[in-house]
């Protein structure tokens, strides 16, 4: 696939630098997500950390978006807008953040359960983590994009969940979203062949109910069409000659 870039050693070092900042922010914010906190407060904390690190909040200005993070709760899948919403006990909170440092980006997301969650929420989070790990394991030189997609779909559907079909993982580098698109469903052996130096943002989105989605009137927040719970995890991953290297942990 001509659009997938192969990164030089120097470019990879810069991507790793951005990804380290993303990982630090996710670890910090994960400790701050609790009942009674507003999503806007969490966004402000993250934005401050990004700027203090000498990086840029790459989400700000992306297609007109105004915030450093996306915070999506319960039936919200991705792209939830931070604001005055107060997080509640038992909420499922997806926190997605991207930064740009020295011209290169890092991007990752985690879903947190606030306090004591339901057994259904706990299982959904656990399986989404497993799906992400399975997808990353297939991000090996010589494999194909379809191997990543298929691995995610297999874990999800084996456990009774659907995978969102209209939103994708993606390549990442100088820009937040680059080629290739990485579906969370597919067939092994299909799609572009993976080569050392490719950098991919792999991000399974699993729903308890249907895979169908809709976008709210704010034109950003994507929710499950049937109102069921959703979970989202994402890591930026480097394809190498050996095992894939996860950069945002």
Would you summarize the structure shown here?
The protein has 249 residues and is of the alpha+beta class. The chain is built from four helices and 15 strands. The chain has one domain: Creatine Amidinohydrolase (Alpha-Beta Complex).
Shape: globular
Helix and strand content put the structural class at: alpha+beta
Largest sheet: 5 strands, antiparallel
Helix content: 25-40%
Termini Cα gap: 28 Å
Order of helices and strands: HHEEEEEHHEEEEEEEEEE
How are strands sequenced across the largest beta sheet?
8-7-9-14-15
Fourth-tier CATH superfamily name: Creatinase/methionine aminopeptidase superfamily
Number of H/I helices: 4
Q: What is the radius of gyration computed over CA atoms, rounded to a whole number of angstroms?
A: 17 Å
Low-confidence stretches: none
Strand content: 15-25%
CATH class: Alpha Beta
The CATH topology comes to Creatine Amidinohydrolase
Total beta strand runs: 15
């Amino acid at each position: 696939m001509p659009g997938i870039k192969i990164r030089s050693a120097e470019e990879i070092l810069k991507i790793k630098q951005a990804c380290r900042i993303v990982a630090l922010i996710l670890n910090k914010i994960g400790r701050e997500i609790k009942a009674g906190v507003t999503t806007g407060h969490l966004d402000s904390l993250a934005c401050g950390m990004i700027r203090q690190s000498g990086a840029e909040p790459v989400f700000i200005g992306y297609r007109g978006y105004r915030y450093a993070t996306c915070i999506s709760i319960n039936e919200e899948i991705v792209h939830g807008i931070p604001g005055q919403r107060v997080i509640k006990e038992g909420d499922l909170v997806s926190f997605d953040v991207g930064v740009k440092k020295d011209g290169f980006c890092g991007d990752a997301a985690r879903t947190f359960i606030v306090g004591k969650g339901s057994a259904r929420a706990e299982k959904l989070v656990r399986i989404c983590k497993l799906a992400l790990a399975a997808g990353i394991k297939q991000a090996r030189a010589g494999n194909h994009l379809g191997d990543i997609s298929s691995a995610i779909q297999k874990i999800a559907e084996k456990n009774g969940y659907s995978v969102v079909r209209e939103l994708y993982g993606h390549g990442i580098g100088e820009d937040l979203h680059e080629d290739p698109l990485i579906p969370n469903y597919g067939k092994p052996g299909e799609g572009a062949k993976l080569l050392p130096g490719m950098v991919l943002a792999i991000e399974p989105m699993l729903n308890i109910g249907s895979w169908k989605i809709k976008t709210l009137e704010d034109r950003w927040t994507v929710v499950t069409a049937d109102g069921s719970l959703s979970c989202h995890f994402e890591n930026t991953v480097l394809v190498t000659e050996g095992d894939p290297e996860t950069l945002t942990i």
